Structures are given as structure tokens and as C-alpha cells.
Amino acid sequence: MNIITTDNLTRRFGSLTALDSLSLAIPEGELFGLVGSDGAGKTTTLRMLAGILDPSDGQLTVLGHPFPAGVEKVHGHIGYMSQRFGLYPDLSVAENIAFYAEIFGVTGSEFQERSDRLFEFSGLAPFTKRLAGRLSGGMKQKLGLCCALIHKHKLLLLEEPTNGVDPVSRRDFWRILRELHSEGVTIVVATAYLDEAGLCDRVGLIHAGRLIACGTPDELTDNGSTTLEDLVIGRIGGDLLPPFDKGGPGGISSQQTEANPPQSPFPKGGSLVPAVVLNNLTKRFGDFTAVDAISLSVPRGQIFGFLGPNGAGKSTTIRMLCGILAPTDGSGSVAGFDIASQPEQIKANIGYMSQRFSLYEDLTVEENIAFYGGVYRLTAEKLKDRTAWVVEMAGLTERRTSKAGELSGGWKQRLALGCAILHEPPIVFLDEPTSGVDPLSRRRFWDLIRSMAADGVTIFVTTHYMDEAEYCDRLALIFQGKMVAVGTPQELKQERVVDGVLPNLEDVFIGLIEEQDLKGD
After folding, report:
1. First-to-final CA distance of the chain
2. 310-324 pLDDT, tens per residue?
3. DSSP E strand stretches across 447-518
4. For the whole model, what pTM was predicted?
5. Which of 3, 76, 214, 227 has the fewest Cβ atoms within 10 angstroms?
6. Which helix (H) or strand (E) covers residue 412, if one does?
7. 3.40.50.300, 1.10.10.10, 1.25.40.10, 3.30.70.360: which CATH number matches 2-239?
């Protein structure tokens, strides 16, 4: 029996065709992965499968009922987790989960068993009384997962469910997902992690609203002779228009190629004084110690990766370094300025890109750039030059007057970076800058980061993508507010060689976290 059947399913928004003639059948009990570039149509597809959006054309049947007429008959059997979480910020972690459990009639011993299990996998057990609005981005994502999984549905629709979630929690989440799969639950998951797509029974590759490939991971990779990432980039790379691409509608100059990237505005050379220095830096919120006596030195021009599970203290550390939060104890300097006594001087000499991109979605691309130009007090002539650079770098030449809220994730990401470095700062702090962005956009983004570092800009970046961590000159792992490891990627892997086999960074990360957990026990 097919749980989902679509026949030429189409969805238009005005003149834009977001989904174009999708024909697909997903049998009962299948774990189906949906992969594609930003703006490809993944979210539109899931929202129609959930009964939130009506088709413009074509046929859709879910759980044996035609949509939209039969939505109400099966609504209680469909679980849907969107990127927007659907959390109540003024309710605690436990209250959010209890609220969703009540909606689906999960009570008594079933509720206790499922909630205990979800708290264990998510690592949220110590934070059950904390308000959802006060959680980090990754912890909100995990709470959203818990709310979606508190009830066992016949059909589970997950929109990039592990976006911003650390590798340990991602592994645990997929363990639970496979258990649900083994129990016969049909699951459709959109994901930007291609290692996760490889765990699915079948994978659909969607681009520009069309399904352009579908099959098992082995079929799509020719039994492992290629990789899913190479497949995705090979099939859609020529059509995407991030910086360093070939150009065309919505892209950059037709002469602009990877061999001739946009020129970086950053000066070469300069002082050898460390860009960032931390001495026993500590931050407490009441009785809770978020950052515990961290000491660190980052030289100029280095790409420094900051890794750790959700809630480990990464964002809190960055906010102290950016002059946003005052430390409780210890000291630190950024660009030679003291983080406690000179926060305004620090803000003028850094770029900061948060997990939420810090864009004003009701303003256009040009208006966002002009706003930040005013914040950084750029002259009219300087702002004109920098606007041209940002628009070209972000591949937004044809979308200068588009509202930021209308842009795909990859475009928003590059626009946010452009706004953050509009004033050409010597140090840039990036807090999970590529979370949820498609693989090609991530690759292009890191091309830009490396070119900036080569020109002397210091990059301090948090990430949950271990392939990105490999690009860093040095890495530090933070756990429960404490620094537990620091070194180059090669050094960290070399320290954990077993029987002559060099582990990958994800195994190193998970091993270190598990060791710290055991010490805590």
C-alpha cells in the first residue's frame, strides 16, 4: 500500500512555480529522503503532504485519502516538524512537550516512557524547567524534534530536523528514527546532510521544483562509485548561482569564474599580535555556569573552529568576545581591546554573523546593506563600493530589490555575511553560519572564508559539520562550558589512532564527548 501518491502535483505562487509536476509513490513503512538546493521546493512539498498547502494542479493522496478534501480524516495521523519549530517560548521545555502530548492524547505511562526517552536522547533532561525562548538555536531544534516525536504517527514529515544539532545528538536522533522505521512508521525527511540521506531507503533529488533523480542510495551512487554529494553538486551545480559560479540570470558576471573570483577587500600583512585572547573566561547565569574558565589564543589570519554539543557554551563565548555579554570572571581581548571595558571598540572592529543571520526580512537586499552601512558609519562613496561588492559576492545582482524574507537560505546566508563584513573588519565571528544550507552553497561559502583568511582576516567559527571543521587551521572542543581539547584537525585525530587507523573528526568528536559524559557519571 502506498502511503503517499502524487501525480503531476504542482504548486504555484503567483507567477512562481515552486513545485512542478511531481509524480511519486511512497509505500507504507518507507524512510524517504528529500534532498535539494535552497529554494528547490522541498518545504512546499512537505507542506502539501501535511495538508497545510493546497495543490494548484495535479493529484495528491495521503493515507488513502485525496487531498485537500480528505485532510481532516487523517490529520491526527500525520506528524510534521517545520523549520520554524512551533515552540511556545513562554513555556518551559517540559511544558512544551506536555502540550503536544495533550494534543495527541498521549497520557499516563505512555507519556512518561516517551518523554523520558526523548529527554535522554536530546540531552534536555537538565533543562526541563528552562523557558523554550531561552534555549540556544540547536537546543530549540532538539526540543522541536521531541515535540514531533512525542506521538507515534502513521506518517512523519520532517523538515531538516537535525539542522544545527550536534553530531552526537544527530546520531541519537537517527537511532530513534530507525526504531520508528522498524515499527512501520512511514517517514519523509528533507535534509541538508547527505550522510543522513544515505541512511534512507530511497532518496529524491529535487531542483527548481522538479524531481530530477530518485532511487536507493546505491542506485544513485552507482553502488558507491561516486558519492551523494558529488551527485547533488553534479546534477544541480551548474544551475546554482552562488559566488564564484558561472553567472547568468540572478548570478554574477559571465566573466566571473572559479579561476577569477571576486576580489577580496581585505588588506594583506599586519601585526602579529593575537587576534583573540581568553584567560580563564567565565560566564555564569545565576547558579548555572555556561562558560567555565576557558583560556585560548588565536593568531591573526587563522580559521579557528569552535565545536561542541548544543548548550555547551559556544554561542555564549562568542557573545562575550563580541562585547554583547559581560564576563563574570576572567579576561579576554579581541583586536587588542578588552572585552569587559572596551566592548564598543570591539564591535567597531569585528564582524558578527549569528545563527539567525540578523537580516531584516521586510527590507530589500539593498535596504539591508544600507542599514548596516549606516550602523558602521560608512561614507556614501564607500557604501556604494561595498554594496556592489556584497551584491556580486552574494550572487544577488538580479535580486537587489527583493525582500530578504523572500530569499532562499543560501542567498540569505551570503547576504548576512556581506552585511557583517561591510566595514571590512579584521576579525569575523560566525555562529553556525551554514546550518541547514545546501551542500553546494556550503562549499562556495567556505571558498569565500578561505580567501578572507588568506588575506589576513581572522575567522572564529562554530559548526556542526565535521567536513567544515576539516577546513579549520585549529579546533577547540567545548563541553559543559569547559575546554576539553584543542589542536589542528590532524593532531586531534592522531591522538585517537587505534590499531594504526586514523579516525575521522566525527568519531573524534563523539569519542571525546562520551568520555566526558563518563567522567561526569
Report:
1. 47
2. 888 998 999 999 999
3. 458-462, 474-479, 482-487
4. 0.75
5. 76
6. helix 409-420
7. 3.40.50.300
